């Protein structure tokens, strides 16, 4: 059975993510143990809140180093996706650096935070795009600005500008929305990630 390790660094959406993966038949373990993260079969980095406190919590527990050293497929969700990049302007903090690029404030949209249901449209050639297009639930005030356009799998329009909403490169993938709150569309994307990871 597929074992998914949810990385617990104090983020708030662990329970709903765990339930979403269990509905797909995965064996889910929530862990804050760096050794378990380093040797996991599959990793999920959740996220609710701000980049600075999240990175501080990951560093304090040795989790940031373990995530970087792990060889397992890794999925970042919402803030977890943003933490995959090099630096966030939210607190001007260094992030995990697994993907090139930065995280910038959404200054051009009429309303921030950007919350609600939005289209997720394929923008790249990747197996995750087979679960798209979809309508998914978002809640964020910052967006990723990748250094390599090739990592962008899908985009979502916010305030007249297309933002990356799914990214992937090698073992690392991320979604800006909350698949665990996005009904059948979210389940399809998580299922595709599990298939890819297997």
Q: How would you describe what is shown here?
A:
The protein is α/β, with parallel strands linked by helices. It has a single domain, classed as Class I glutamine amidotransferase (GATase) domain (Rossmann fold, 3-Layer(aba) Sandwich), CATH 3.40.50. It has 6 helices and 13 strands. A 9-stranded mixed sheet has the order 2-1-3-4-13-12-11-8-9. The chain has a 4-stranded mixed sheet with strand order 6-5-7-10, with helices on one face.
Helix and strand arrangement:
Layout: E1 3-7, H1 14-23, E2 27-31, H2 34-38, E3 42-45, H3 51-60, H4 63-69, E4 74-77, H5 79-82, E5 87-88, E6 93-94, E7 101-105, E8 114-122, E9 134-140, E10 142-146, E11 152-158, E12 161-169, E13 172-175, H6 183-197
Parallel strand pairs: 1-2, 1-3, 3-4, 4-13, 5-7
Antiparallel strand pairs: 5-6, 7-10, 8-9, 8-11, 11-12, 12-13
Summary tags:
about 200 residues, alpha/beta, Rossmann fold, nine-stranded mixed sheet, four-stranded mixed sheet, 6 helices, 13 strands
Summarize the structure.
This protein is an alpha/beta fold and 198 residues long.
